[in-house]
Structures are given as C-alpha cells and as structure tokens.
Design brief:
Blueprint: H1 8-63, E1 78-90, E2 93-105, H2 116-208
Antiparallel strand pairs: 1-2
C-alpha cells in the first residue's frame, strides 16, 4: 500500500481518485454482468449443439445399419474442403463466427455403390458441419471466459484494493490534519498564556524597582 503525503493537497487528490474509482466501477460491473450473460448463452448453445450432434450420429447409425458392412468402402467419401470464419464484436470481445463450410465428395459410381450412399453423404456433411460449429462455439466460450476473468480481476482491483486504499489514505490524512490542527490550537493557547503572564509580570517588576 502506498504511503500518502499528509497534507491538504494530498487529501484533495485522494478524494478525486476515490470519485474516479467509484465512477468507473459501475461500468466495469455492468460489463462483467453482460459478459456472464453472453457466456451462459453460448454455453447453453454449445450443449444444445452437442446433444443435437450426438442425436444425429445415433439417428444415422439407426437409419443406415448397412454401415456395419465393412465390405463397402466408404473411406474419404466426404471431407471438408474449406471453412470460412467471420468475426464479430460482442460486449467488446472479438468472437469467431462461422461463415460457410464447403465439402468435397469423392466421385463414386451410382451402380458401384448402394442407393443409400447418397443419403449417407448428406448425413456426413451435416455431421462434419456440426463438428465445425462445435469448435467455433468452444472457441467463443474460451474467449468469453478469458474476458470475464480479466474484467473480474479489474472489478476486484477497484473494489478490494484501490477504493479501500483511497478511503484509508483519506482517513489517515484527515486524522493527521485534525491532530495537527488541535496541536496548533494548543500551541496558540500556550503562547497567549505566556504573553499574558509576561504582560502581567512586567508591571509588577517595575513596581518592585
């Protein structure tokens, strides 16, 4: 904790600092609340997407039980060829946003593959896109959590350090100035008492001469 200069100028400076800290704190607290709301929203969306992706995967296996047939070569049937990521500013935090996912589907003979392969291609594309969406949402969560930790640290700095320190410094300076003022009053009274005694003694000394 810094040691303040014990004078009236320092007292005024500490009061100004305290006013500044108290004016900044509400905006920091508001931003922290906004970040928490956005973080909770993205987390819920992430969980919803995860459940949706798992259900789609389970439905695909149920709808196409022929996938268990290892004699049918489906390796590399669908792959992601490109992903376009955008960026948006949410509560002052830059977050990734999915733009477009492009797929490359290996050419296959209609006669050489079972008829359900076309249906499988659509399902695989959806599953692959879901994985990309999950990755983007996970990154959004990471960035929001990092921003929330930082703003919380700033709020704590103001609430638990800067404001209490300014209040304590103001208290110490006021006590010092109050003590100094009382001491000055006492000195003044003592000097007046001495002057009175000196004034009273002088005529008596003259009369004794």
């Amino acid at each position: 904790m810094r040691r303040p200069t014990l004078n009236k100028q320092a007292l005024q400076a500490e009061r100004e600092q305290l006013r500044l800290y108290r004016s900044v704190l509400p905006s920091l607290e508001l931003k922290r609340q906004q970040l928490m709301m956005e973080l909770n929203k993205v987390k819920k969306e992430l969980e919803r997407r995860r459940s949706q992706s798992l259900k789609l995967e389970g439905d695909t296996i149920t709808q196409i039980p022929m996938l268990a047939n290892r004699e049918i070569d489906l390796a590399g049937l669908v792959r992601i060829s490109s992903v376009t990521l955008l960026e948006e500013n949410v509560v002052g935090v830059k977050l990734p946003k999915l733009g477009n996912v492009a797929f490359a589907v290996i050419e296959y003979s209609i006669l050489g593959k079972p008829p359900w392969v076309d249906f499988l291609v659509v399902k695989l594309q959806r599953l692959a896109e879901d994985r990309v969406i999950l990755q983007v949402l996970e990154e959004r969560v990471r960035r929001l959590e990092r921003a929330y930790r930082r703003i919380t640290q700033r709020v704590n700095l103001f609430e638990k350090m800067l404001i209490p320190e300014a209040l304590d410094n103001i208290r110490r300076i006021r006590i010092f100035l109050s003590d100094a003022e009382r001491a000055a009053v006492v000195r003044s009274k003592m000097m007046k008492a001495r002057r009175r005694k000196t004034t009273q003694r002088a005529p008596a000394e003259k009369a004794g001469l």
